[in-house]
Amino acid sequence: MGRRLGFWRRFAVSVVKPSVLALTRRDYRGMGHIPASGPAILAANHISHADPFALAQYVYDAGRWPQFLGKASLFKLPVVGPWIRAVGQIPVYRGTVDAAKALSAAEAALDRGEIVIFYPEGTVTRQPEHWPMRGKTGCARLALTTGAPVIPMAQWGPEKMFDPITKKVGLRLRNDVAIVAGPPVDLSRWKDSPLTTTVLQEVTDEIMYAIRDLLQDIRGGRAPELYTPQSKGGHA
């Protein structure tokens, strides 16, 4: 297993795993694409506030420790904040002078040979049918800076537990949840490219297209073009 568990991590597993097992009926695919060791960036769609738990279980079952970049506000919550910091999660200070600290912390984690989980969209999707939005460029910047492989991931089903668009909560047990990982995104054409806005957006779109195509496979239907919210563009 490419992970080390101390007290707090074991405690997190003892709390989260039974809940995920009770609330979900899991369809895991592509787990072999998660590297058994060494650094990797996992880039996933974000469809519900419940999906980090399902995704964390997938990554844990693949033999790695799930390490997310999460909103800094979560780290300020009583009890929860110190706990998620203790188990290695990384705060994102979006829109502040500390914004670069998240990428620095993620880069340090990759240097240690760890897994880092990114939601390139930066928030739960606002696309009305839960298809992916156009991503933000932090994941692309990290990939080009470190050379770590980007493993695209798609998930479908956690929105039944909590739908951020309708605000509907599903309290029943054994919700069907499908999660798939794909082969690393081929970013070779951008190797040694300057980190311009254009390059970063191209790489971001390439990552999001890989995620979108995986999602299309597991949920069915034809995916639309990447969604750009009208109120706040999708390029930050």
Automatic annotation (TrEMBL):
Gene Ontology molecular function, alphabetical: 1-acylglycerol-3-phosphate O-acyltransferase activity
Transferase recorded as keyword: yes
One Gene Ontology cellular component: plasma membrane
Pfam family of the protein (one): Acyltransferase
Keywords linked to the UniProt accession: Acyltransferase, Transferase
Xref: InterPro entries: Plipid/glycerol_acylTrfase
Coiled coil: none
UniProt superkingdom: Bacteria
Domain called Phospholipid/glycerol acyltransferase: residue spans: 40-158
Biological process according to GO: phosphatidic acid biosynthetic process
Protein name: 1-acyl-sn-glycerol-3-phosphate acyltransferase
Organism: Longispora fulva
